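Quick one: structure tokens for this chain, please?
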Amino acid sequence: MVDDGVQAVEQADKNALAAQPMPGLGRAGAEPRRKTISNPYVHRLQRRHFLLFDIVPIVGTAVALALLTVRPIGATEIALLVAMWAVTGLGITVGYHRLFTHRAFRAKPALAAALAITGSMAGQGGLVSWVALHRRHHECSDQEGDPHSPNLAGDGLRGRLRGLAHSHFLWMRRHEYPNVVHYAPDLIKDRALIRVARRYNLWVALGLALPAAIGGIIDQSLVGAFYGLLWGGLVRIFLLEHVIWAINSFLHMFGTRPFVSREKSRNGGIFSVLTFGESWHNNHHAFPESPSFGLRWYRPDPGFWFIRTCAALGLASDLKTPSARRIAARRTAANDTVTPAVAS
């Protein structure tokens, strides 16, 4: 969902902003801590991350598709693509999103570290940056300050297309960077987690090296390693990125809305398996603290299935799933809200 999580940015922000006076403290008349940062240094790092982790996978995918005319992919490449897509996708939805951003459940330290690593392998930004940006998205969703809303670019077809392009991809080139001291103080205080998060670039590299090594070993050749790198690495990053980004863009403009709220989030249930349950997006905005995005057993939510499995193994606990009565009450309130508008 966010994409400028370069560790150097996080460290620079912490160093620069930790010294700022806390709201209500310090000398009289001191200004409250800024929520966002925008300066040339940050923007340079954002552009670098955009080129390395957003543009390079596009190039790698184009190369992989072009090479299909020379050497069709086999079972190894398909298995690496699917396996790495599942591992890193769960790292994003279960780790980055449900655990670290919304604290929807508790995880044993080993599981938390594993999710931080596999989420980093997705190449969608460092953990602290990702969490800070997503928390700001919920705070300002579809309003001024939302880093990736598709609904702030004007009316008409041109405005909608421009908004979709911005929210899906272009916003990551340059944007205000959320102050991690303000938005993610809980993560900064977790020293064990920060030790893992600081090695973001290493985990991304590991996510590329693993499929390359496996492909080379199975094929017993450098060609096998190259194809493993392409399909289990770059193509996998490309596909997962655009699947997740589509939630930022299309699911704030198209889909169903069982719960009415100030933002314009929508559900796209047909994509629920592909997105690990993330496409129940309106449900999520209605109950952001819930580890279940589907909210009902019959709505596919692979991310929640994984959390339930971890809970059964004793690795996860305190799942904050809303009750059926609370869900029904929220839906009824939403219907009451829209009834006068329909009647008029």
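The first helix runs from residue 7 to 17.
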